[in-house]
């Protein structure tokens, strides 16, 4: 029996083979979904059907599959420190191997091996040639041969030297300008300042609805009689709409449709503006300025955490990474000016901090990408949630790194194999813990689905890092219980009106409406009877729009079609809804599948343009026509800015970087690579990004850019994390502790 059979290696054990196959199968499934969305995209651009799927669509899908699988393979090979493509050939032995081989230059840089000054085939020192003269060494001959002999060669050498010095100079200053939080804060403040000072604010229908809600509630509190439930009445709750059976007996005009805390804050600010100035416009500008400052603070704090690793300067981590046996690794401080020692010392950046090119890419993305710029002043719930999520994403990275540092300290052993250290739990400072809690609280008050995300994060955090359970309870679980629980209690007590359950049935409504419009004869009579108390199928067919489910559920105030009978529907009427929907899907599965894909394919089709981009809020009619005096200030400028963003986004390939689905697709591919590489601890705080992709699919509209903002904002930092995890065998420990392999 062979040694492999007696002691099978991890690569030969059946259970590990099954694990490898399962991980690759999961990655292939993700790529198949992306390829399918790319293949059917052209069909839905023309409002066609998958029944018209042809060889050209198959070619699109095959090409997308090859490209996406190539990206995953390259990511996996880079993560394993292998050449991205092909095999590596060892110069000495001629052996070809794909595993964990770096080019010589990178190998020396990672292991800090000095470059050879002499070749191995140089003549030994002290030997002489046959004629008694000292032989010319190989090094000297190389030096002589490298001297430029022509004017063109000397000019090229000078250009290369100048370029190298220029690059070093720029790199040094880029790092110097981004090595502190206040510097990043200043960069984002100055770089974004043109938006609030020239565009002032950006908003849509949601802000108007929140202002209307608070106004009606204020009128009620001040004793003004207003219409409530009645066939001819039309209250703010009818706009969304919210079924009348959800309205409490005692009149109330506040709802949780756009999050009650945010509605109270926005509404009260605009009410104060109307009282003081006679219009909402000054209040809107004040709200946009506050969100702008919040965006600057969140972005600067997160960039500082990822680029500069500030926790490594703290005493507990610095003590853990200090190695008195290796003074050549340097200290934690450097002189402020070498020629002026009286100026003292300043903390030095850790060696694992990001390089200049990464810093420049992060700063340029946030300062130039229209999604990021317009989100700073767009007064709708999704940008606020996105910046709060980005803020929390930085804290998750710090917790991830500190957990690795704790495990490294606990796993130290001496030469005999005896453990020499006890587990050291590196805790967050009190100020950081408070900020982490605040970020989660802002997420909860800005998006109703935030509590699903936070509970998912809590479960993953406890599974990945049990020792720090108290931190997760305080920062995640308690805010979720207090805020979400408090809102639920207010709804159950009748103080406010909760959201209509119909909001969560967008996919089903689109399927029913598409079948009612394009194949009404296939709807079973039993399904018609079961849906009759809830929906008017004729109106659903008339209101159907492939990209958006809002018209089908009668949302909005313009050209409102009563397809959803929100005035008369009762809770019992919804009992057979799922049964009727299933009957319709079985009767016409092709049209039902068309409805599903038409509503969500754009999030995963890289060539699809946004249905609603962030620049919509810049020049929407609510800003340009329905405001009091804001519409007269820089009216043409807002149009030019929005048109420029649209024109840039419409450019093939070059415009992809301005679209949210570009970052969604690449994030999904990086996640698939992390699954294959078994980076479970990194996945524990990356998986909420996947959960947000599920939110996109169930959202009312297709390729709605504001739903993709959290993924787009975190993408650059996700790439940086993947690079650091791939840098060396124990890179996560290196980032946290500064230890070198």
From TrEMBL:
Keywords of this entry: Membrane, Transmembrane, Transmembrane helix
Biased composition (Polar residues): 120-149
Pfam family, one: DUF6020
Residue ranges of the region described as Disordered: 112-151
Keyword Membrane applies: yes
Transmembrane intervals: 21-45, 57-76, 184-205, 282-303, 360-378, 384-403, 424-443, 472-497, 653-676, 683-701
Name the UniProt record assigns to this protein: Membrane protein
Organism of derivation: Bifidobacterium stellenboschense
């Amino acid at each position: 029996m062979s040694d492999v059979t007696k002691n099978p290696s991890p690569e030969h054990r059946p259970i590990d083979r099954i694990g490898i196959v399962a991980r690759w199968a999961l990655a292939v499934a993700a790529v198949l979904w992306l390829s399918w969305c790319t293949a059917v995209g052209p069909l839905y651009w023309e409002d066609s059907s998958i029944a018209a799927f042809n060889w050209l669509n198959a070619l699109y899908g095959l090409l997308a599959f090859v490209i996406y699988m190539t990206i995953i393979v390259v990511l996996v090979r880079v993560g394993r420190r292998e050449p991205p493509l092909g095999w590596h050939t060892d110069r000495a032995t001629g052996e070809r191997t794909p595993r964990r081989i770096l080019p010589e230059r990178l190998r020396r840089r990672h292991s800090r091996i000095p470059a050879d000054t002499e070749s191995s085939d140089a003549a030994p020192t002290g030997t002489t040639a046959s004629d008694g003269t000292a032989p010319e060494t190989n090094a000297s001959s190389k030096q002589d041969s490298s001297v430029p002999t022509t004017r063109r060669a000397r000019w090229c050498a000078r250009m290369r030297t100048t370029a190298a010095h220029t690059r070093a100079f720029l790199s040094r200053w880029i790092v110097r300008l981004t090595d502190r939080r206040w510097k990043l804060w200043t960069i984002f403040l100055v770089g974004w300042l043109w938006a609030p000072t020239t565009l002032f604010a950006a908003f849509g229908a949601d802000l108007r609805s929140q202002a209307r809600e608070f106004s009606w509630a204020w009128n009620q509190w001040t004793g003004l009689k207003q219409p409530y439930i009645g066939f001819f009445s039309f209250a703010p709750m009818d706009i969304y709409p919210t079924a009348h059976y959800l309205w409490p007996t005692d009149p109330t005009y506040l709802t949780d449709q756009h999050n009650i805390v945010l509605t109270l804050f926005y509404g009260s600010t605009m009410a104060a503006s109307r009282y003081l100035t006679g219009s909402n416009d000054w209040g809107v500008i004040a709200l946009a300025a506050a969100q702008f400052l919040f965006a600057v603070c969140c972005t600067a704090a997160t960039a500082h955490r990822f680029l500069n690793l500030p926790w490594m300067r703290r005493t507990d981590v610095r003590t853990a990474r200090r190695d008195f046996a290796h003074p050549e690794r340097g200290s934690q401080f450097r002189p402020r000016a070498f020629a002026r020692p009286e100026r003292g010392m300043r903390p030095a950046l850790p060696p694992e901090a990001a390089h200049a090119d990464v810093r420049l890419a992060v700063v340029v993305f946030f300062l130039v990408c229209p999604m990021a710029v317009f989100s700073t002043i767009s007064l709708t719930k999704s940008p606020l949630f996105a910046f709060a999520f980005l803020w929390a994403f930085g804290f998750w990275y710090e917790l991830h790194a500190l957990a690795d540092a704790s495990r490294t300290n606990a796993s130290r052993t001496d030469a005999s194999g005896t453990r020499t250290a006890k587990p050291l739990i590196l805790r967050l400072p009190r100020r950081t813990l408070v900020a982490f809690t605040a970020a989660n609280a802002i997420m909860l008050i800005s998006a109703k689905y935030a509590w699903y995300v936070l509970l998912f994060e809590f479960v993953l955090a406890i599974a990945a890092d049990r020792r720090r359970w108290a931190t997760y309870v305080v920062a995640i679980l308690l805010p979720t219980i207090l805020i979400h629980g408090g809102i639920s209690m207010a709804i159950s007590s009748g103080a406010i009106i909760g959201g209509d359950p119909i909001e969560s049935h967008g996919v089903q409504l689109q399927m029913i409406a598409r079948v009612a419009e394009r194949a009404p004869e296939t709807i079973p009579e039993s399904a018609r009877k079961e849906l009759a108390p809830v929906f008017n199928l004729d109106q659903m067919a008339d209101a159907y729009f492939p990209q958006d489910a809002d018209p089908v559920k009668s949302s909005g105030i313009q050209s409102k079609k009563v397809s959803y009978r929100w005035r008369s529907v009762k809770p019992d009427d919804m009992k057979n809804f799922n049964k009727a929907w299933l009957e319709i899907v079985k009767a016409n599965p092709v049209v039902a599948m068309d409805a599903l894909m038409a509503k969500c394919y754009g999030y995963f089709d890289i060539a699809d343009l946004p249905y609603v981009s962030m620049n919509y809020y810049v020049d929407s009619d609510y800003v340009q026509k329905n405001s009091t005096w804001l519409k007269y200030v820089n009216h043409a400028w807002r149009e030019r800015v929005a048109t420029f963003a649209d024109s840039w986004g419409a450019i093939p390939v070059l415009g992809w970087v301005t679209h949210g689905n570009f970052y969604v697709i690449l994030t999904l591919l990086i996640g698939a690579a992390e699954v294959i590489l078994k980076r479970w601890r990194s996945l524990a705080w990356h998986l909420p990004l996947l959960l947000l992709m599920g939110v996109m699919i169930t959202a009312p509209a297709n390729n709605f850019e504001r739903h993709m903002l959290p993924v787009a904002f975190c993408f650059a930092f996700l790439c940086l994390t993947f690079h650091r995890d791939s840098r060396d065998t124990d890179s996560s420990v290196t980032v946290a502790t500064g230890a070198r392999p």
